[in-house]
Design goal:
The structure holds two protein chains of two kinds. Chain A contains six helices and no strands. Chain A is an all-alpha fold. Chain B is built from six helices and no strands. Chain B has one domain. Chain B is about 70% helix and about 0% strand. Classes of the chains: A mainly alpha, B mainly alpha. Chain B: It is found in: Cell inner membrane.
């Protein structure tokens, strides 16, 4: 039952990405291309994706988090870290470069698995390798690059 | 570059669906709908017993284009412009950066901003800035 619910929620999220156009890297790159504004090549659609998603989530969270606990767990698992360490700057900086190079972030990379062919598989394989590398580096006791904050 | 049409209505609707999924996950399991975090935890070591749920969630995202194709009659195909070496490099950076920064466009950009999290606000500002800069560099400067 809970597995099926997880599947349904993932499906709705994936359909959202597809309908929004965010699953298409060409659209993502055209949104990220601010220098194309004078020539009329900029596609501001993704700002609407973010606005719609944040608005619905903010309203929904407000209602849901009033409840004593979620339906199928004993408590809400909200991130507790509030400090701005180097990881919260360095991680997103690296992420953004990768996002700008190909136009794929993790969700759209997953929707491309069935429709994007070999190039999408290559991106996904590399993405999981990068994830594994970061988890390995973060778990090392000698990871003195930065203080390790608890994962989400 | 491939020209794309401005689609404010569809994008707003798609965004609202993404938000609805995030709210549903919080209501059901009490967890943030961070795709990178959920995907990264498909790999060992596992810290909890939620692997089945994470697999089902990811499978739902993966199958979404095919379901959309069943409904509309055309399977939406992503248009990928980057070369294979660039895709490999981009994948490594996206995967590493998302885990190192504890979140991606969904976890920080949607759920975090909706919670008014200071860390997510900073993370989103930083990855938007480097993504804008990267496209500026690859399309206009290099």
């Amino acid at each position: 039952m809970l597995i099926l619910l997880h599947f349904a929620i993932g499906l709705v999220l994936g359909l959202g990405l597809v309908i929004a156009g965010m699953a298409d890297p060409a659209k993502v790159l055209n949104f990220l291309d601010l220098a194309a504004i004078p020539a009329g090549g900029w596609d501001p659609s993704l700002a609407f994706v973010l606005a719609g998603a944040v608005a619905v989530t903010a309203l929904g969270y407000r209602l849901v988090l009033r409840r004593p606990r979620p339906l199928f767990d004993t408590r809400f698992h909200l991130p507790t870290a509030t400090d701005l360490d180097t990881r919260i700057l360095l991680g997103p900086a690296i992420f953004g470069i990768g996002w700008g190079l190909a136009g794929f972030c993790p969700g759209p990379a997953l929707t491309a698995l069935t429709t994007g062919g070999a190039p999408a598989w290559l991106f996904l394989a590399a993405m999981f390798a990068g994830m594994a590398g970061a988890r390995w580096l973060a778990a090392r006791p000698a990871a003195s690059l930065a203080p390790v904050s608890p994962g989400r | 570059m491939i020209a794309t049409a401005f689609t404010p209505a569809a994008s707003l609707l798609g965004g609202a669906l993404i938000g609805a999924a995030a709210v549903a996950l919080m209501a059901a399991t009490g967890r943030i709908a961070g795709i990178s975090g959920i995907a990264a935890r498909l790999l060992p070591p596992y810290a909890d017993a939620g692997l089945g749920g994470r697999l089902a969630f990811v499978l739902g995202i993966v199958l979404a284009p095919l379901v959309a194709g069943l409904v509309t009659g055309t399977v939406p195909v992503p248009r990928i412009e980057a070369s294979l070496p660039l895709l490999a490099l981009a994948g490594l950076l996206v995967g590493f950066g998302a885990v190192w920064g504890n979140g991606c466009t969904s976890g920080h950009g949607v759920c975090g901003l909706a919670r008014l999290s200071r860390r997510s606000l900073v993370a989103t500002a930083v990855f938007m800035a480097t993504a804008f800069a990267t496209v500026l560099a690859t399309r206009h400067l290099l």
